[in-house]
Amino acid sequence: MVERCLKTQDLSAVKEFCQESWRQILDGTVSVQDFIFAKEVKLGTYSDKGAPPPGAALAGKRVLEDPNDEPQYGERIPYVITRGEPGAKLMDRAVPPEEVVYNSNKRIDAQYYISKVLIPPLERIFNLMGADVRSWYNAMIKGVTADNAEAIISGSPSKVKAAGGKSDEESLVEEDEQAAIDLHYRSNRCILCGTKTDEGVCDICKRNPEESLHALLGRVQEVEQRLKNTHTICVSCTESAMAEPIKCESLECPWFYARKQAERDMENIKGVHELTEEIERLACDESENLKGKGKPRSRLGRKGVRSVSPMDVEIIEIL
Predict the structure, then answer these.
(1) Identity of the highest mean pLDDT range in 85-89, 120-124, 248-252
(2) Which of 57, 222, 282, 305 could join 301 in a cystine, given CB atoms 3.0 to 4.6 angstroms apart?
(3) Locate the C4-type zinc-finger of DNA polymerase delta domain: which residues (predicted)?
(4) Which domain holds residue 53?
C-alpha cells in the first residue's frame, strides 16, 4: 500500500484498496492461512497475575489433553482468533487453524483482525500524511448495524455476562453490531451481483432469468473445476490414488487451505441448485407468457389466398 501511495500519490486509491481488502475479509473469501499467528511459547515463564498469551493458553490446553504433547521451549504455536461470546477473553478465542478449516461453524473474527491487527500499523504510516485510516473502515460499515439491528437483537439473549469492566448492555450492543456486520456481508447479498437482498438472488437478476441461470451454472462449473484442480495437485504431491481420500494436513501448504475451501464451496452448491431450479421456473413462465401473447394472425391463407371473414360474407350479401 505504501508503494501504491508513492506511485500514484493518490490517497483515494489507497482508501479503495483498503476498503476492498476489508470487504474480502468480512465476506470470508480470504484464506485462513493469512490469519495465522505463530508466536514463541515459553511455558513456565508467565506470571499468574495476568492472562497468558493466546499461544501459551492453547499450548496449555494441549498439555492437559495429552501430557506428551508439551511444546518445546520457544516453539512457535500456530493459532487463529475466532468469534466468541460477549466478554470472552482473547486466549479463549484462540484455536488451532485446522479447527476452523474442518468446522464450518467456527469463523474468523474479522472485526478483531481489521480493528486490532491491520488498522493500527496503517494508522502509524498514513497519519503522518494526514489520513484517518480508521474513519475509512467506519465509513464502510456505517449503516450496516442499523439495517440489521432488529433482526440481530431479536435473536440475541436478553442478558449476557460480560468481563473486562463492560456492562451487560454495552457488551450485548457490541456483539449485536459485530453480528450485524457479519450478517450483512455474508447473508444479505445476491450470489450473482452482490446487491443487498434477503434472498439468494435479487429481484433485478430474477428479471433476466436466462442470464442469471447461465451465471449460476457457470458458478457451479467454476467450483467443480477448482475442486478438481486442487485435488489433482494434492494427489500428485502426496502420490496417492485419485479415488482415495487425501490425508495431507500440512498447515504450511497453501493448497491444503485451497482444497478445503473448494470442498466447502462444493457443499454449499446444494443451495445454488435450488436457486437454479427457481430461476428455471421463472424462465419457463416468461417463455409461456411470450407464447401466450402471440402474434396477430394474417388474413392471408395458404399460398397468399386471403381468408374469408364473416364481415366479407355480409358485404357479399349486400351486394
Answers:
(1) 120-124
(2) 305
(3) 190-259
(4) 2-141
